[in-house]
Amino acid sequence: MRNLSGSRLRFLRRPGDRRRLRFRRGVYLLPSLFTMANMACGYGCIVYAMRGEYETAAPFIGIAIVLDMLDGRIARLTGTASDFGIQFDSLADVISFGVAPAILSYSWGLAPLGRLGLAAGFLFVAAAAMRLARFNIQAAAGGDKRYFVGMPSPAAAAVPAATVYAYPWGLYDYRAALPALAMVMVPAVLMISTIRFRSFKNLDLQSRRPYTVLIFIAAGIVAIWAHPRGVLVVMAYTYLASAFIGQAITRFRHRGGRGAEAVQAPPAELPGRDTAAR
Question: Does residue 259 fall inside a structural domain?
Fold first, then answer.
């Protein structure tokens, strides 16, 4: 009887209700295509890294970073954000910003370190997965959108990608491979740390700006086009160091403010002193 009544209810639904139900079961194609392209870039990086073509493999991570920034913005602008898109984006990021840079780093410079190199690469993957899981929880709970808690996984992946792109010849000696260990471990530790990094989500792109802003943007594009290896390395490591610089500036300001308050504070009254004469 239940199956019969259920089939009758389905039959009595209006065509509009049936279309709405099918639409909810589907996915939004536009942001999902960007996420799929992001994942394809991570896969391409892995394939070329395994071939030893590091100069070709490293830029795939940079392209994945651009696609990762676009899919979320497009979903918000077009009103196509969904829970499926959030989870799909996180899984794609684990591949593009966790597995791909770890394999690239291992093939390029961690292999001479043996098991130590294997462990470092796995720690980077684990840190990226934990960072993305924590980000999803914090995004659902809300918070200060001006900062990320921990280094974002795309920025962490940019550090080994930019380094490999600047020096694509690889490391084949144990001593020469030791800096590659720091190149992987430092971003991995920063991803799972509680250090705050600027998110730049509070930038208002719709308000009017001076014309000089366009000149600076054009100069940055020209610099990347003319000297991509050096400029991308500087950008990646500058963002990595920006959190420590910001913390140092904040502490210096707090100390300066406390010192000024101590100077401006009135002296304490002595016991038994007559205050009526003042």
Answer: yes
Residue 60 CB neighbour total at 10 angstroms: 23
Question: Would you state the structure tokens that stand for residue 98, as one six-digit string?
Answer: 């966790």
Residue 136 belongs to a domain: yes
Q: 14 in a domain, yes or no?
A: no
What are the tens digits of pLDDT across the range 68-102?
988 888 888 888 888 888 889 999 999 999 999 99
**What's the whole-model pTM score?**
0.79
Residue 232's CATH number:
1.20.120.1760
CA distance 39 to 169: 26
- CA separation (Å) from 171 to 178, 195, 234? 9, 31, 21
Q: Which domain holds residue 75?
A: 24-264
CB atoms under 10 Å from CB of 198, counted, come to: 14
The helix (H) or strand (E) run that includes residue 177 is: helix 174-191
> What contacts 24+ positions apart, CB below 8 Å, involve 45-49?
45/96, 45/100, 45/101, 45/103, 45/104, 46/99, 46/100, 46/103, 46/104, 49/100, 49/103, 49/104, 49/107, 49/108
